[in-house]
């Protein structure tokens, strides 16, 4: 077997001889992306004898996968494939060809796109049940559905599906692979994209590879990180943080035979060893299998953890990025319509490092999420405003996924230095937020539960549904307004807004997990309730909490879908000179002007939406002077009211306004 050659063209020739295909599309993409993949492999595995073999096999798998890709998915690829750019430091810029044709706007930059996320079992029993709900989802206005992990997992606890025993078998309680394909097809027909997790940092401890690795079967010994004694684990743990200390201390667990294996999360989730190129090849195969089921977006679970190195935190290392880029190149070759969503719940400087056309085009926005809650607790939107000012802009061709809460906990991931600039002590503030959202702080409206409280470090995160955290559970009449306000931020800052399904009817915490021995120690289950049938039953009755919320959430969706200014990521902060008011401007740029137009018949291109949100408990006044840069007449889009800005405006507590404004006529010198 040849070693990886420094010369990509020569290696490609060798590999091409082994390819059966001859498909022109595939060859074009192979020519385009191979140099990038090759350079990445060379950097990751250049000194390993099996590097070339893994690269060759990856390409062969990509070829087979493309051959097997169903025509409707290929059609989707053709609609969605985006030009990629060379990665500045991959060293391949001289060999990269650039896709020709006019620049294309990504499909996910459409203001009409609104997402939802749900567990199949909890929301609809099984995949057939989920399909039966498609008309409801469509009716709500969704164009994106993230189904939580649904593959086969171990008996008993499985981290809500994040311990995958086989990437090629659906959990039998939910259906079959054929069911999943059918679900993808029906979603596509209804105009929804399918999002599934690619849980690629680890497998379940009963995955076939894991069993073989532990048994020392040749070819598999090196799939995981197994150590004969504590020597290396102890050294690693000096610099690696604990993720689930409630499950086990540190990052390793002991095997029955006394050896130690790396498991960042639960004891039954074993980290894959990506320093072994065969693991990359194997996981690339699983990834393409998922892609061929009809998945449109792969949520790259726990991406920060995929590369380990002694003496480092083993989070967000440079190699983690190279790996993600390599997976991206494989996808670009064999499933070019599919994009990655990065799940990096880390320091904001690190979150953005995963976002590029070569890496993940989409990323959760954990900072905006956490700071929305921060502003609701403090009534002070300064940190959120600061984040929007300096941490919001993304490269062209990429976007945020903005959420109010997910299936996980809320961690206060803002940067200490950002807080310090505003005179806020980050440590003390995080402690306050944990107290506040666990309801311990006097006067708190929130009913949350702490997650992974670590007495050693004082660290903790918060779990709870949107409604429970916002005050609905505590019967604070303002709770429902906070639910709407929080969603209005996710809906107006750009990118893909995401609803945790059930939150639109105000589902509350589910405390039953505490009685389930398998779940009692994982308080995130409090925010994963079953389909709230009662709330949905009263969603059309506006006298109920569910009905009131549902009406407002639908309105937010409708208006967002009629407002091209709200897509894209370009955002201009605006100083409303009112301490509790968050204000910013959104302008329709070419990236976002994809919608049907403004809905009210006006042409949105070049116009601006001024977003105002009052986080305070009192009326907030925005003076005429502050608004004098705009023409005196504006339209408030949510209420469809024409408003006059000439006398200033008053925002009631927790109210918001999306004002379509025009610049004031230029006050230049009069000419005679
Ligand atoms: C991600 C998931 C989380 C899971 C972890 C391990 O962070 O969102 O639910 O526990 O990865 O897979
Ligand atoms: C899971 C955990 C979260 C952790 C993250 C890392 O989401 O719940 O607390 O920070 O994994 O990806």
Description:
GO terms for molecular function: amylosucrase activity. Residues 72-88 have a biased composition (Basic and acidic residues). One of its GO terms (biological process) is carbohydrate metabolic process. Residues 89-101 have a biased composition (Polar residues). The strands form 7 sheets. The chain has an 8-stranded parallel barrel with strand order 1-2-5-11-12-13-14-17, surrounded by 4 helices. Strands 18-19-20-25-22-23 form a 6-stranded antiparallel sheet. By secondary structure, the chain is of the alpha/beta class. A hairpin with a 4-residue loop joins strand 15 (449-454) and strand 16. It has 5 domains: 6-99; 106-196, Transcription Regulator spoIIAA (2-Layer Sandwich); 208-270, Oligo-1,6-glucosidase, domain 2 (Alpha-Beta Complex), CATH 3.90.400.10; 365-561, TIM Barrel (Alpha-Beta Barrel), CATH 3.20.20; 570-667, Golgi alpha-mannosidase II (Immunoglobulin-like, Sandwich), CATH 2.60.40.1180. Residues 243, 302, 304, 345, 408-409, 411, 461 line the site of one alpha-D-glucopyranose.
Name a few traits of the molecule.
672 residues, alpha/beta, Transcription Regulator spoIIAA, Oligo-1,6-glucosidase, domain 2, 8-stranded parallel β-barrel, 6-stranded antiparallel beta sheet, 25 strands, binds alpha-D-glucopyranose
């Amino acid at each position: 077997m040849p070693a990886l050659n420094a010369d990509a063209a020569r290696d490609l020739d060798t590999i091409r001889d082994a390819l059966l295909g001859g498909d022109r599309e595939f060859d074009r993409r192979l020519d385009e992306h191979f140099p990038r993949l090759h350079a990445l492999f060379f950097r990751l595995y250049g000194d390993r004898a099996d590097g070339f073999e893994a690269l060759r096999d990856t390409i062969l798998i990509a070829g087979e996968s493309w051959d097997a890709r169903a025509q409707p998915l290929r059609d989707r690829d053709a609609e969605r494939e985006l030009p990629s750019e060379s990665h500045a430091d991959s060293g391949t810029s001289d060999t990269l060809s650039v896709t020709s044709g006019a620049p294309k706007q990504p499909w996910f930059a459409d203001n009409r796109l609104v997402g939802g996320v749900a567990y199949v079992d909890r929301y609809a029993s099984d995949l057939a049940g989920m399909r039966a709900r498609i008309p409801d989802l469509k009716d709500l206005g969704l164009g994106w559905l993230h189904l939580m992990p649904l593959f086969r997992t171990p008996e008993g606890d499985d981290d809500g599906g994040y311990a995958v025993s086989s990437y090629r078998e659906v959990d039998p309680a939910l259906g079959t692979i054929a069911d999943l394909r059918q679900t993808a097809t029906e979603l596509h027909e209804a105009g929804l994209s399918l999002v599934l997790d690619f849980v690629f940092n680890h497998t379940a401890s009963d995955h076939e590879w894991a069993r073989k690795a532990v048994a020392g079967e040749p070819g598999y010994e090196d799939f995981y990180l197994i150590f004969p004694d504590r020597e290396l684990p102890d050294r690693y743990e000096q610099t690696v943080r604990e993720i689930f200390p409630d499950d086990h201390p540190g990052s390793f667990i002991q095997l029955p035979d006394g050896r130690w294996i790396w498991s960042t999360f639960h004891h039954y989730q074993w980290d894959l060893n990506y320093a072994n190129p065969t693991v990359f090849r194997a996981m690339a195969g699983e990834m393409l299998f998922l892609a061929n089921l009809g998945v449109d977006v792969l949520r790259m679970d726990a991406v920060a953890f995929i590369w380990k190195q002694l003496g480092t935190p083993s989070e967000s290392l440079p190699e983690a990025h190279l790996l993600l880029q390599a997976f991206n190149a494989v996808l670009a070759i064999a499933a070019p319509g599919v994009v990655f969503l990065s799940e990096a719940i880390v320091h904001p400087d690190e979150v953005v490092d995963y976002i590029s056309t070569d890496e993940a085009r989409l990323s959760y926005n954990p900072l905006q999420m956490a700071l929305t809650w921060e502003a609701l607790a403090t009534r002070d939107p300064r940190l959120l405003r600061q984040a929007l000012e300096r941490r919001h802009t993304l490269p062209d061709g990429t976007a945020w996924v903005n959420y109010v809460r997910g299936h996980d906990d809320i961690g206060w991931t803002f940067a200490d230095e950002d807080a310090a600039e505003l005179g806020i002590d980050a440590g003390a503030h995080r402690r306050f937020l944990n107290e506040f959202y666990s309801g311990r702080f006097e006067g708190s409206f929130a009913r949350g539960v702490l997650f992974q409280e670590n007495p050693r470090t004082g660290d903790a995160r918060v779990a709870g549904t949107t409604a429970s955290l916002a005050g609905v559970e505590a019967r604070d009449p303002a709770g429902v307004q906070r639910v709407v306000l929080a969603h209005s931020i996710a809906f107006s800052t750009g990118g893909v807004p995401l609803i945790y399904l059930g939150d639109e009817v105000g589902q509350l915490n589910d405390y039953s997990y505490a009685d389930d021995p398998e779940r009692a120690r994982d308080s995130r289950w409090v925010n994963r309730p079953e389909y709230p049938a009662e709330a949905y039953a009263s969603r059309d009755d506006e006298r109920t909490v569910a009905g009131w919320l549902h009406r407002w959430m639908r309105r937010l969706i409708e208006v967002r879908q009629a407002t091209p200014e709200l897509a894209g990521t370009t955002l201009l902060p605006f100083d409303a000179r009112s301490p509790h008011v968050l204000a910013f401007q959104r302008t329709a740029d070419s990236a976002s002007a994809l919608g049907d137009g403004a809905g009210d018949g006006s042409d949105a291109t070049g116009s601006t939406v001024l977003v105002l949100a009052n986080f305070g408990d009192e009326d907030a006044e925005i003076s005429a002077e502050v608004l004098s840069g705009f023409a005196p007449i504006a339209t408030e889009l949510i209420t469809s009211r024409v408003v006059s800005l000439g006398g200033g405006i008053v925002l009631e507590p927790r109210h918001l306004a999306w004002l379509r404004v025009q610049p004031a006529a230029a006050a230049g010198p009069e000419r005679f």
